[in-house]
Every structure is written in C-alpha cells, then in structure tokens.
Amino acid sequence: MLKLYHAPMSPNSRRVWITLLEKGLEFELVEVNLDGEQLKPEFLAMNPFHHVPVLEDEGFHIVESIAILDYLEAKYPAPAMLPKDAKDLAIARMVQMVTINELLPSIGPLFPLMLGFPGGDPEKIAQAKQKVSIVLKFFDDVLDDRPYFGSENITLAEPVAGTVIPWLAKADVSLSEFPKLSAWRDSLLARPSWQATEASLEALKARMATRMPQQKPG
Ligand SMILES: N[C@@H](CCC(=O)N[C@@H](CS)C(=O)NCC(=O)O)C(=O)O
After folding, report:
1. Is residue 81 part of a domain?
2. To test ligand 1's pocket by mutation, which of 17, 52, 104 has the most ligand atoms within 8 angstroms of CB?
3. For ligand 1, atom 18: residue with the closest CA
C-alpha cells in the first residue's frame, strides 16, 4: 500500500494528501514529528534533505511534492488531474510554479498575522501584500469561465495553490477584487479532501509560539 510520510501542518505534505484523497486511493499516513524525527537515520535514508512529504510505494521512495503528484498522475490516471490540451496544461503548471516560486516566498512577513500574533514590520507586511496582490491578479486572469485552472475538473494545480490562498484571509488579504478566484477558493473549501486535511489553527499557533517565544497569540 502507498505510504505518505507527512506533517499535518506542512502545506507541502498537504498537497499530496489531498491528491491521494481526490484520486480515491488507499494509503497509510505516517506522521513525522518535525521537531527532530526527520533528522533520524531511518528518515534520512528515505529523504537525505530531511523534508516531508515522502511517498513510499513498494519500497520506492519519492521526495519533492511536485514529483510525487506527477507520479500519482502517471500511475493512477483516473480521475485525470492534469489537462491534456497544451494551453490548459501550461496553465495548471504555471499556477503550481507561481505558487511555489512567487507566492510562498513572499508571504513570510504575513505568517504572524495569519496565526493571530501581534506585531510585525508594517513596511515588510505592506511589501508582502503588494507581491501577493500581483499573484492573485495573475491567478484571477488565468481562470476563464471554467471553475478550475485550465479545466472543468480539479487539477494538480488546485492542491498546490489551494492550500495557500485560503490562509491569506487570516492576514486580511481579501479576494473581493477577484471574483473568479474567490469562487474557486470557496469551491475548494467545500470539498471533503480540503476539510479532512485542514490543519488546526490552534496547533499551528502552538507550534509557532515555540519558535517565537517572545510572542503570544492575540
Ligand atoms: N520542495 C519540497 C519542500 C519540502 C519541505 O520544505 N518540507 C518542510 C515542511 S513544509 C519540512 O519537511 N521541513 C523540515 C526540515 O526541513 O527539516 C517539497 O515540495 O516537497
């Protein structure tokens, strides 16, 4: 059986978890405590870079969440989660890569806000929100009259972008200017796979508090 080594609070793991659920696959979840378990020799033997997720399939270990999503799509093609049309495939990939290369690196200053911690550098927060708004506009423009990126059905773009964008509301980043993206987010949040994998805000706060001992949740 497929085995997913994950951490409930890791968005990179959650992409894979959601995809396994959306594909209706049987799998075992193995939780890795990122307070050190990832540095143990048994885990490093699977992933020398000490990151979750890792997918194990009959002794074969795959690291890097996007490589895992591609593996699942190739091995379990139904339901299809990557468009076949060239433009639509490019759209799904662009959304994955823009999330990883543009959105995620820009939101660091927003994390404390998302988790309800006070403070933060107002200039850095404003800069982060400006970068985020460029990504949101890009995504809204890329969505056409279909509900998902390049598709009538959920694609591998959704577990990547759709596990980041809903959290932005917690940092007062509104999607009201982006009606297509807002409808897209709402439809994802209603899916059982999103609901089953949502990390608890309290657990995230507790984890963040151990890393930022000088701050208390507001
Ligand atoms: N590029 C990797 C990133 C994985 C990653 O950064 N995982 C984090 C959790 S979100 C992790 O395992 N951190 C613990 C560590 O690096 O020791 C992927 O997409 O799978």
Report:
1. no
2. 52
3. 64
Same domain, 137 and 113: yes
State both tokens at 33. 């405590």
**pTM given for the model:** 0.93
Does 180 share its domain with 108? Answer: yes
In a domain, 16, yes or no: yes
| DSSP reduced 3-state for 4 | strand
Please tell me the distance between residue 161's alpha carbon and the centre of ligand 1 in angstroms: 16
The whole-number pLDDT of residue 218 equals 43
- Quote the CA–CA distance of 142 and 19 in Å, as a whole number: 22
Can you state the angle between helices 122-142 and 179-189, rounded to 10 degrees? 90
- Name the residue at shortest CA distance from atom 15 of ligand 1: 51
- Nearest-atom number in ligand 1 for the CA of 13 is 10
Q: Which of 52, 75, 98 is the last residue of a domain?
A: 75
Q: What is the pLDDT of residue 217?
A: 46
Cα 51 to ligand 1 centroid, rounded to whole Å = 4
The CATH number of the domain where 134 resides is what?
1.20.1050.10
Q: Kindly give the parts of the chain with pLDDT less than 50.
A: 213-218
Q: Do 32 and 9 touch, CB atoms closer than 8 A?
A: no
202 assigned to some structural domain: no
Instruction: Tell me how far the alpha carbon of residue 50 lies from the centroid of ligand 1, in angstroms.
Output: 7
pLDDT at 203: 74
